[in-house]
Every structure is written in structure tokens, then in C-alpha cells.
Design goal:
The protein is globular. It is mainly alpha-helical and 325 residues long. The protein contains 13 helices and no strands.
């Protein structure tokens, strides 16, 4: 029989265990998951949405038909529409940390409040931000290095009028894009456990990267990649269905005949609202899956299930601490 003091049985986890555990954690800690996610999304998205709307208001006040003949029409408005996405990115950093703490405690059968979750993660915010920035830099640097040579060949061939160089550059660019996709998936998988390591093990940035790399390597890599891709697709579809009315409303603005600046202002507002809805509903599930995968890999590689059973029986200290009141 499974020994289950909390949201998961203390053994290697199946797909049902992962998704079921996340939903049990959300139901048992609504304030610390959905509530905290909605609050965090609002805190970040309200100012960034206001900033995006202000930037979009500086767009040319012309009709959509008139903008077709202008080389600069839509540039400022498009930039303003993207600003709320920056707020979503910042809120996601914190939400991943919050969910790692909630899941860690829920595995041990502990319910937590929003206030306790904040106390348990607030001192790790600096490390979370640093780790996220470093992760982004790694992704961007890797992509830039892969596509740099094809782009250089294309530019050189176009400048010199050398058709052979242009054709070679196009071929290399296609290969580089495919290689970039593979590299992205590889890094996305190997760095999946940086946030749980930062929050639950109190590791520094470089230590968390090394920890994630060790836990995600070897034969478990493909399983981890498959589960994360499947979860991302499923959660993405659900999130798209939830925000579909807002997306349709944003697209319909182009047919209302309102000036271009007003259209982009409303699109910035709609982007912010979509971010709040998605942040409150889908982000807790995504971050929760990653946190449970971290626990699962420690069970498979380090026998963490034995430690957790001893903790539940009161014969060993918990593998991660709980925030003090």
C-alpha cells in the first residue's frame, strides 16, 4: 500500500500522481496558490499595463487604413502592447518560488497560508531573480551563437551580390533554427529544477544550476522532457481556452474603426487582463508540476522517499525547513 502523508504517495511518481498531486495542493492551499498567484499578478501587471497603455497612447492617431502607407505606424503601439508581458515575466519568477514552497510542505502533509508562503520564500527572492536572469542569458546567448554564422553569411552574400553565399546562408539558417530548437529543449529540461533547489534547499545560484543539472541527467532526461512538454501543451491549451474571449476581443478591435493609438491602448489593457487570468489559473499548475518532478527525481536518484517516510514517522528531520511564524 502507498504511504501518503501528503499530496503524493512516497514512491516514484506516475503522471497521475504528478497532476493529481498538484491539484490536491491547489485545493488544499487555495490562498497560498491561486490567491497568491492572482495577487502577485495584479501587483506586477497593474503598473506594467498602465505603462504599456501610456506608451501605446503615443502611437500615431490615424486610422488602420492610413497606417498602411506609413513606415513607422504601429511601432510604438506594438511596443506598448508588449510591456504587460514584462510584468507577467516578473510575476512568474515569484510564483514559481511560491509554488515550490507550497508543494514542498504539501508533500509532508502540511497546509500553508499565503503569509507563511511569503515568509518562507521572501528571503530567496534575490536568488530567484538572479537565477532567472542567468537562465535567460544562457538561452539568449546559446540562440545567438547558433544563428550568428548563417546570418553573417546572408548579410555578406547580400552585400557582395554572391548568390551562392546567400543560398548557403539560407540553408545554414534553416539548420541553425532546428539546432536552436533542440538546444532550447535540452537546456529547458536540464535547468528545470533550479527554482526548487533555490527555495527548498536554500542553494546559491551556481549551486542550484549544478544541482538541477545532476538531477535531470542520465536516463531520466527523456522522461522529464516528455512530461514537461506534455504538461506545457495541456496547460497551454487550457490557458488559451480561458483567455480566448479576451484574445478575440483584442483582434476585433482592428475592425471597429477606432484610431490606431486607441486600439493599441486597449490591446495593452487586454494583454494585462489575460496575464492576470493566466497567472492565477495556469501558472500554479505549471510551477507545481516542476516542483513535484523535482521531488520525484530526488526519490528516484537519492531515495528521498525513505527520508520523507522517516520524517512523517517523526524519526528524522524534514528535508526542507518550514518558515517560522
Amino acid at each position: 500500500m502507498d504511504f501518503r502523508p501528503g499530496i503524493i504517495p512516497l514512491r516514484p511518481l506516475t503522471m497521475n500522481d504528478l497532476f493529481g498531486g498538484v491539484f490536491r495542493a491547489v485545493r488544499g492551499n487555495v490562498a497560498a496558490t491561486v490567491g497568491l498567484a492572482a495577487l502577485t499578478s495584479l501587483i506586477f501587471l497593474v503598473p506594467f499595463t498602465a505603462l504599456g497603455a501610456w506608451v501605446s497612447s503615443n502611437e500615431e492617431s490615424v486610422s488602420l487604413e492610413e497606417s498602411v502607407t506609413s513606415d513607422t505606424a504601429g511601432l510604438v503601439g506594438s511596443l506598448g502592447s508588449l510591456v504587460p508581458s514584462i510584468g507577467s515575466w516578473f510575476s512568474t519568477i515569484l510564483l514559481a518560488g511560491f509554488l515550490a514552497y507550497v508543494i514542498g510542505q504539501a508533500v509532508l502533509g502540511r497546509k500553508v497560508s499565503a503569509a507563511e508562503t511569503w515568509r518562507g520564500t521572501s528571503r530567496r527572492i534575490g536568488a530567484l531573480i538572479g537565477a532567472t536572469l542567468l537562465t535567460s542569458a544562457i538561452f539568449i546567448g546559446t540562440m545567438a551563437a547558433i544563428v550568428a554564422i548563417p546570418i553573417i553569411l546572408l548579410v555578406a552574400g547580400g552585400t557582395a551580390g554572391n548568390d551562392g553565399t546567400v543560398v548557403a546562408g539560407v540553408g545554414l539558417l534553416v539548420l541553425a533554427v532546428l539546432l536552436a530548437i533542440v538546444a532550447t529543449l535540452f537546456l529547458w529540461t536540464r535547468l528545470a529544477f533550479v527554482t526548487p533547489a533555490v527555495v527548498l534547499e536554500n542553494l546559491g545560484i551556481t549551486q542550484a544550476f549544478a544541482r538541477s543539472w545532476r538531477l535531470s541527467g542520465g536516463s531520466v532526461f527523456w522522461r522529464l522532457l516528455g512530461i514537461r512538454v506534455l504538461a506545457a501543451i495541456a496547460i497551454g491549451v487550457v490557458g488559451s481556452l480561458i483567455t480566448a474571449p479576451l484574445a478575440i476581443l483584442g483582434a476585433a478591435l482592428a475592425f471597429t474603426g477606432i484610431p490606431l493609438d486607441q486600439m493599441y491602448v486597449w490591446q495593452a489593457v487586454i494583454t494585462g487582463l489575460s496575464g492576470v487570468v493566466a497567472g492565477a489559473i495556469t501558472t500554479p499548475v505549471t510551477a507545481g508540476i516542476d516542483a513535484l518532478l523535482y521531488v520525484d527525481h530526488r526519490i528516484r536518484r537519492e531515495g528521498l522517499d525513505v527520508h520523507l517516510i522517516q520524517t512523517a514517522q517523526g524519526t528524522a528531520a524534514a528535508p526542507w525547513s518550514r518558515a517560522e511564524a
